[in-house]
Specification:
alpha+beta; globular; 4 strands; 15% strand; 206 residues
Amino acid sequence: MKTLFIGLLITLLLIGGVLANWHYYVRRKSLKLAKQKYDLIRPLILKLNAGEMPSREEIATLAQQPSLRAIVFEMLNIHKQNDLFPAEYYTLEKSAESSMVMWLEFPTELNRAPESIELMAYVPHPEDKALNYYVFRYLARPTRWSTRNAWMLGVCGPYSQHSKPYDPPLRVYSRFNTIDSITPEEEVQWIHQHIRPHRPASLKGQ
């Protein structure tokens, strides 16, 4: 089951398009990250495999962590126990937040979860106002891009009224721009134009 979990996590990362530079360092770091997540979620997996009913409190404790939320949902989905997933986290916003944090954790990006993350704005799709991007601001400790704590922008989406929580987003990306250097609308415009611009539309109306 550990292999299945790690494989599932890597698949989620692949869907987000973050494994483009799959060299030794990235592979080693990503496997280490997957194993760390597995250790945190292992008690839940063992209960599900044994046919035991995990408590809602146990699931809620895991789901409140954005870095674990999507994988908790997927594990419950595999075992057909979706009804145990907390309703407060079964939203597009919480799903997008989880995708954003998982992207930031990846070795080629921020390489860790942010200190804090908040929804900053909904920005309409540049070509179809029925679709929206979620723009988050997140607080990062000093990195190779910045020598100070800074609130930065990240974008996830787009989503439509037909989108379901934890559907794979077409785009998850951050250029590590600070919130005072660019507007959410400008950031969405750039990401929409430059990140996977030629991929066939996967959302109705896109």
